[in-house]
Amino acid sequence: MTTPDARRGSRPEGALDARLDDRLDDWLDDWLADPSPRTAEPLHAAVRDAGTADDQDRRRDAADRSRRGDHAGALAVLETLLPGALLSPSVHARQAAALRHLGREHEAARQERIARASLAAIRASGDGTAERPWSVLRVADEYDLLRALGRRPVNQSLVGREGRALDRLVTEDGGEAWFAVAGLGAPTRG
User: Fold this and answer.
1) Which residues does the chain have with pLDDT short of 50?
2) 99 alpha-carbon distance from chain centroid
3) How far apart are the two ends of the chain, measured CA to CA in Å?
4) Which end of the chain, N or C, is surrounded by fewer C-beta atoms within 10 Å?
């Protein structure tokens, strides 16, 4: 069994309410043991409740700190993205890298596992076509998946289809990747 401190990893005291922090760790453990819609729902709800505010500045700050060798600082910045980025493949991969630089191998391995499971869940949610788009919680997750697939987006547009909003990304190879982003309403015409 994973201890609460090992599961929580580097989250600074007070970063999240302690009860929520423990619940998130329990939900993550349940989801990692059984990556099903039932075990994913509490995690998805936590992300939706936290909102999907643009966090690119904080992600850049964390990357800059890592490049300068301030891995503890990078980790602290990444922790501020939670729970909104709870299932973000790239956030967990960056946490893993920072933890590894800090010699915290066990925690790094857990973060890598969450990153891999998050990518696998996105891939399993559809096939990336307009008919069966991949389902993501945040737009950044679209880019994480395409990066993992070795595809580079060159254009992005929001398209209304059958009453829902889909993100359509055209890739360098001329292909398309379609995503349903939680919380995006259908585009309106004004």
Assistant:
1) 1-15, 186-190
2) 17
3) 55
4) C
